[in-house]
Amino acid sequence: DKIFTRVGASDNISLGESTFMVEMTEAANILNNVTERSLVLFDELGRGTSTYDGISIAWAIVEYLHEHPKARARTLFATHYHELNEMEKNFPRIKNYNVSVKEVDGKVIFLRKLVRGGSEHSFGIHVAEIAGMPRSIVKRAQVILRQLEADNASVGTAGKPTAEKLAESREGVQMSIFQLDDPVLCQIRDEILNTDINTLTPLEALNRLNDIKRLVGGK
């Protein structure tokens, strides 16, 4: 009888509503009007708040749609919360599917094929790399991810706090602009290295600074 969608993310500045508030308002409207003959599409529900809040809200909504005696609508629920994969074990109408990928030599190939079963991994870092994120940031993110996953696997064991471990893992990571992969930063590096500050006049220094400003998008 109806098709309900909660897809995309945007705030409503004129009404003072955050992205998460808009998301919750739209989700509430769906849940208050859905019937067993409705089709519901939810995309990444709960992403605008803390991880545990988001998981809890998403889980409760899935339970509601599954168990409600008059609103058991057919639903497609896309999420990156892997914890929701476990719901299939206890709720007979829930079926997990994922869009398959293949990893080859550390690279991810998106096969764009829908297959049975839940996904155990997200590939946000790989997507960031494909989008052109500086290589130094991608490498650092991979280090942080491994540390967070290791800490999550050893919950309850004694040890240093995660933040302290991540700070220590920065050893050898130089945050100098000369080691970043951004082409603009490489140009700035070359500009500076080719400048003889011992013979530079004040006017030449201002002109050189203006050149660098233009490189980074200044007017």
Task: Characterize the structure shown.
This protein is of the alpha/beta class and 219 residues long. It folds into three domains: 1-94, P-loop containing nucleotide triphosphate hydrolases (Rossmann fold), CATH 3.40.50.300; 124-173, no CATH class; 179-215, no CATH class. It contains seven helices and five strands; from the N terminus they run βαβαβββααααα. The strands form two sheets. Strands 1-2-3 form a three-stranded parallel beta sheet, with helices on one face. Strands 4-5 form a two-stranded antiparallel ribbon. A hairpin with a 2-residue loop joins strand 4 (97-104) and strand 5 (107-116). Helix 3 (124-130) runs antiparallel to helix 4. The protein is elongated. It starts with a strand and ends with a helix. The mean pLDDT is 84.
**What fraction of residues sit in β-strands?**
5-15%
Could you name the CATH homologous superfamily of the largest domain?
P-loop containing nucleotide triphosphate hydrolases
What letter string, H or E per element, gives the SSE order? EHEHEEEHHHHH
Write down the CATH topology of the largest domain: Rossmann fold
Q: Which CATH-level-2 architecture of the largest domain?
A: 3-Layer(aba) Sandwich
